[in-house]
Protein 1
Amino acid sequence: MENTTTVDRAVAIKARNICKTFQISEDSHNTVKHRLFNLFNPPKTKYVPALKTMSMEIMQGECIGLLGRNGSGKSTLVKLLAGVYSTDSGYINVTGSTMLMNLGVGMSHELTARENVYVSGSVLGLKIKEIDAIFDEIIEFAELEGFVDTKIKFFSSGMVARLGFSIAVKAGADIMFLDEIFAVGDAKFQEKAIKVFESSWIKGRTVILVSHSMDVIRQYCSRAAFMKQGELVYFGDTEVAISKYIEDNQ
Ligand SMILES: Nc1ncnc2c1ncn2[C@@H]1O[C@H](COP(=O)(O)OP(=O)(O)OP(=O)(O)O)[C@@H](O)[C@H]1O
């Protein structure tokens, strides 16, 4: 693996020898009859090596692109770095608060928009008074003024995504993991999302950007990683990572 690091900035994320294997139970005995006749033939366990042993360092203020085909391990890596999953081995040091953002993930569908704002804000380490102060801005940015006390299970997927995006924008975090965020909402909301990304997020924050859009990666990322079948194949120059990704798609 090639790895280029910047030397003049503090480290935001340091991952050493991390890996993740999922265990899936292949339960074909899904009826009572099947289970009774297969008492001595338990369901098989399948192991999925989603992330093979890898190390990486990300510096504060960098915008890093994460490239790879479907199932290459990008989301698994992001979830490990964001602390959503625990790593099977090695260690991850993170300096600063983190926020993982992808379409609607982290939202509880049985809660209202208001309740989700407070839960997500608390998870991010904000005090109730701090959430009170930004609450109206979050709802306004998400364009959900008429739906504050509606359970989000009644929202369209675009509305859920807009709420998640607005919480991320207003509550923020030192390190943002953004998984395909430019696919949020309709064209008008996307334009607003890109504007806020360029005006505030990109400045002073550490961003890890997962995207299948080479234009987005090329425009914002100072370095990029290319992943294939759970392996970090390359981490360094953005154009090199893009060319490896394009090659892999041919
Ligand atoms: N919670 C899970 N349980 C079991 N297997 C999982 C789980 N999450 C991911 N996997 C498996 O791990 C592998 C990597 O998945 P991952 O979601 O990290 O890929 P990805 O690069 O983010 O894909 P995409 O571009 O489709 O989002 C896949 O084979 C997937 O089936």
Protein 2
Amino acid sequence: MTRPLLGVVADDLTGACDLAGGVADAGLRTSVTLGVPTEPIPSEVDCAVVALKSRTVEPATAVEESAAAARALAGVRYVYHKYCSTFDSTAEGNIGPVADALVELAGPGAISVGTPATPQVGRTQYLGHLFVDGRLLSESSLRNHPLTPMTHPDLVRVLARQTDRSVGLIDHPVVRRGPTAIADAVAASRGVHRHLLVDATDDADLDHVAEAVLRLERPVVIGGAAGLAVALARTHFPGTSQHSRPSELPQAEPGPRLIISGSGSERTREQVAAFRGQIVRVDPLALAADSSTIQRLTEQLEEAVRRDDSAVLLSATAAPSDVRDAQTELGKDKAAALVEDALAQLAVTAVGKLGVRRMIVAGGETSGAVAAALGAKTLRIGALAAPGVPWTVTTVQDRSIALLLKSGNFGDPDLFETAWTVGP
Ligand SMILES: Nc1ncnc2c1ncn2[C@@H]1O[C@H](COP(=O)(O)OP(=O)(O)OP(=O)(O)O)[C@@H](O)[C@H]1O
Ligand SMILES: O=C(O)[C@@H](O)C(=O)CO
């Protein structure tokens, strides 16, 4: 029996979908489980993805859940630590502690090798510095992220602050020399560094890194965003791309459609601004001030859904200054929890009472909260509505629910209109 190529520990749900959509599109049979799996990985799977909600939790919790996920994935060829393509981390930072735990579990002498570079969505790493659409990370809109503001572009330093282990760089001149040079550089780093970040500015670089990684003496833990995972898929199983294959997902039942946005990202703000249908607004200050707010929102949502059959948008998305005001008044965690809980509760009402069967959710934390409240356990992966944003189907109480779980900065500005045309 062949072993799954990749067992992925993903720090948020939209990141899990991003990676799963990419590797499925490259031809890997892919499963997504929400939370640590309790069942063995099905033997026909090439890539088993475990979606956690560990990006913004206490480091000790992130470590405990990630280690449990890695143990549940025992037997895969490579454990893949999926973090964000913009290296999103809290001030304490969970990427370092989780990477430490995963190399520890991988066995004596293990090393982690990875890169957040995902050129398809404009993320590149050069001389250890991360760029977003050609701008330094710290000068991109990520500096205003509501939970994980990224104000330092030098990832070697960012990661080194999160771990006591030594962090090294395989720089672009080495990457450009090809897989042998990269593999030699990794071999020379064993015993010197415990974590290696690798530059990549285009897909050819990622293919070199993937080929080098597949040749490495194990134990090795691979780290990164979707880019390197997709490069591993196309390097390991060349010629199996699904681009021309129809989606195998079942058709969703007809019914009202809902978009839920708790994302603070710049791209989501553009998508909300471009949306022309009915919008129900969710405000953390109103939620905090009056416990009847959720009842009022429920009524507004019911009315909007019944009024006409176009998609309704339920949105907490606000300008960074408004988010900051709410955080100053309520505290960052309380503001986030109020919004996540309200959106999750309204999602449950939408499915249980209003007959919603197709839903777009914007924001990683928001998607995690919504999917957990719905009771989703696994996702089947379908067609991509945009790079990094696949349609998925989950089964909840014998009902198929189609979910498009969107990372904040992904998708074109008109995604909330166009995504339905490729959905199940
Ligand atoms: N108006 C608001 N005021 C304060 N916090 C908010 C507001 N709207 C949303 N939030 C919170 O901000 C967080 C946004 O994170 P989320 O991961 O969902 O989306 P994102 O900002 O696009 O990030 P990502 O790129 O990871 O998807 C959530 O915890 C959400 O509850
Ligand atoms: O890597 C990315 O950018 C996404 O998959 C993600 O994790 C955003 O939250």
Protein 3
Amino acid sequence: MQALRTLFAGELPQLVMFDLDGTLMDSVPDLAAAVDQMLALRSRPAAGVERVRDWVGNGAAVLVRRALAGGLHHTGVDDTEAQAALADFLRCYAGDHSRTTVYPGAAEFLSFLRGQGVKLALVTNKPERFLPELLGEKGLGDSFDWLVGGDTLPMQKPDPGALLWVLQQAGVTADQALFVGDSRNDVRAARAAGVPVVAVSYGYNHGEPIAAENPDLLVDSLDALI
Ligand SMILES: O=C(O)COP(=O)(O)O
Ligand SMILES: [Mg+2]
């Protein structure tokens, strides 16, 4: 907590915005299962958890395009095929979140902040339709004042638009807010919004160490911030 308070002149932030996948929840096992089902429907080999981990972070449509391309760079994927594959992926993913787990320390940090009266928001690139059910299923249903999915607004992280929207809703200035995330999309969106940013070391960042993005703080678990 000492470290967190140093970012806010001895106080706590008034608003904390959280990324979801790779920050609060280890969701890759279920995302990979749905990707592999989508590929199997096309008689294509499974991608597997290790590769899918590096493809998560830019929302479902980009994840599916990366899976069709077999790598991070997905130019050249046919739009019609990508659209059909996205529909299959979304249908498969909706069915089963049983392998998704909340990271140790995440629930504790959220309830600590709630107890201190800090406003909380989820700002994820994951499609909005999955959020209420997934959070409820994993015991985080009452955690957030705002839920912003990747398709809630016209822009997605690393665009700062969703963060700026939440700041406006909350009536909080950027320097009184904090963003907590795992990927370069999070750090870059927070920087562009002027919001201090904490990164977690255990998440998904396209196979690169998140330290290279120079977050204001880097932690190995969220309860290190309590
Ligand atoms: O769905 C994704 O690609 C990533 O979601 P996130 O923004 O919560 O990491
Ligand atoms: Mg993430």
Protein 4
Amino acid sequence: MAQYTTVNGSVALITIQNPPVNALRAAVREGLFNAIQKASSDPLVRSVVLSGQNGTFCGGADIKEFGNVSSMSGPLLVEVFALMETSMKPVVAAIEGFALGGGLELALACHYRIGHSKARVGLPEVNLGLFPGRQVIAGEALKLGLLDRVTDHNTVDTALAFAKSVEGKPLDNRRLGNRPCPPLENMDAFFEEAMKRVRSRARGASAPVVCVQAVRGAATLPFHKGMELEKVLLGTLFNSGQAQASQYCFFAERAGARWSMPSGARWDTCRALSISTAAVIGLGTMGRGITVALARAGLSVVAVETQEHQLAEAQRVVSHMLKGGGQVSYSSDLQAAAEVDLVVEAVFEDMALKEKLFKLLSSICKPGTLLATNTSTLDIDRLASCTRDPQLVVGMHFFAPAHMMRLLEVVYGPRSSPEAVATAMQLGKRMGKVSVAVGNCPGFVGNRMLKPYLEQAYFLLEEGATPELVDAALEEFGFPMGVFRMTDLSGLDVGWRIRKEEGLTGPDVPAGQPTRSRHGHRYSPLGDLMCERGRYGQKSGRGWYLYDKPGGRVARSDPWLRNFLEEYRVRNALVARPIHRQEVLERCLYAIINEGFRILDDGIAASPQNIDAIYVFGYGWPKHRGGPMFYAGQVGLARVLEGLERYHLAHPDVPHLEPSSLLRRLVASGSPPIHKWNQMVKGHRSQL
Ligand SMILES: CCC[C@H](O)CC(=O)SCCNC(=O)CCNC(=O)[C@H](O)C(C)(C)COP(=O)([O-])OP(=O)([O-])OC[C@H]1O[C@@H](n2cnc3c(N)ncnc32)[C@H](O)[C@@H]1OP(=O)([O-])[O-]
């Protein structure tokens, strides 16, 4: 756990050994503690170098130990730090790879820090619901005073030579605990302003706010008092549901890589095809972002757009985004895709158009080319059936902007081969995405769950709510944008087009169909009415809110909308009632959760973790709430079930509010913890 050797006669080299990231689990802490004591008591040792195995200094505390009693065994991290800092022999940290969280604190407890130029250091625990903040690369760390020296050479050798050179030198001013924090002018005003800003950005997350309190303590209190305050604050965070939710997200983010298909095919038994060239077809916003993402991942990309003016504009935008990096060529001819290993289709969301395109691509492309569609809702299998090799067709559902959003839904149809899925998943990894493999159904996972969410939001408007009220409740919960601001941003016409395609609105609706009912179920035409009036959201300058110009970003309340809703209610004999924030949250969120349980039961998602990763990384679900399925567990499954039963009783014509059978089965079996839910799924399959 901590290897101890003596080098150059007088330097003790301690190497942390706990792959893959040298996390500081109990045995490592114990090993470090013993090694420092050994170095202190060995008269031949005059200095110490601390390093990590395999080019990695330390990834911090072992997150798997959090909330686990075994983490209480062995010395505490702070005890290891104190022993190191008070050592009478200089301790030099040799930082390669990364020193994160407790790993950086360990380095800070050393008297000197030498970092490799490519090393990253930081305190990213805020992502785990603990404090503090961001990561920086070695050069910046040097400027900030976190490192004493940066090297391009072998870091451990440099540190060994350095340690030798400081043997016997005084250490008092090298101990961080002895260094006073330089006083700031207007300290109080500074922290009050910082707190105000952090609170407004934290959207209900405690860790960033508590972080400011801790920094204030560090800057204003004597060292030991600051440490005491930090301990109290950390204890509060550790015991909060938010830290558990964030730590769950850390593992959910990585769980997608261990994908499985209902056929039994899995991540560890399938080989990905080798992909070095790609074509992107259709250069609207999505196609441009996908081109950038693929090029940044090192693929040679040909970007194809048949409309010349769109092609020229895309070339300008993509080149600007890539800033001269990346290999991209442009063409208006589909034949340019003939020799590529992968095609990503990103044309308009129109089944007939996509079918035609897939037929063409199948005849143009060389055998073995993987054909991927970026559709967000359409049937992958129908597209596959237009091709020569349906096993080589998958969905790669990117999220806008595609070069920035972390999520990638990899959609397999009944005929997609495991190799095709493995290839898309590996590509996702190369692009730095959180990739999740999901089955084929309308909307896949993310958009299928979005549908009942939007539906509830519309129903709430019919019943008396305003977009402002609904959005405020959701934003207070932690979403970066409420549902109405979000749909204004993505464009109301997107859903309108899909509803037309589904025959829910437009010319295909049979004459005499009641306005607020489809197939015997409640339906709200509000979104359609908005689009019929040209209110598409930000792009048209008017949607659920008013914007100063088309493309404007600042939403203002629109008196027109208030009148529109009042007239709509009168026309449809609806009586507005006061709606409480709690009802908004329960109806919108429970509707999402309920669909999540159905998706799990249908085998469309392989695990609740996969669903949660999709919602956190693609739909803005707040990380400190862990994703919809985790949140359901935190609220209590019985309470979610009771809520859904209550709302379904009040709205019997809304099938999305009818509790799912899996939720009922889970509650009936005593609401097991989330990692056991899969055992209750129909046709249970193990994926982890
Ligand atoms: C009192 C305490 C105070 C203290 O301040 C608290 C802390 O230090 S909090 C900690 C503060 N530290 C952080 O917040 C750093 C969190 N970690 C990271 O940011 C990235 O993992 C890192 C940059 C280190 C490597 O990225 P990469 O090269 O892309 O690799 P990867 O990401 O795929 O991970 C590989 C495997 O290692 C696993 N694993 C990783 N870290 C930990 C851990 N600390 N623990 C346990 N496991 C960890 C990870 O799950 C994965 O396992 P699997 O089974 O293969 O799925």
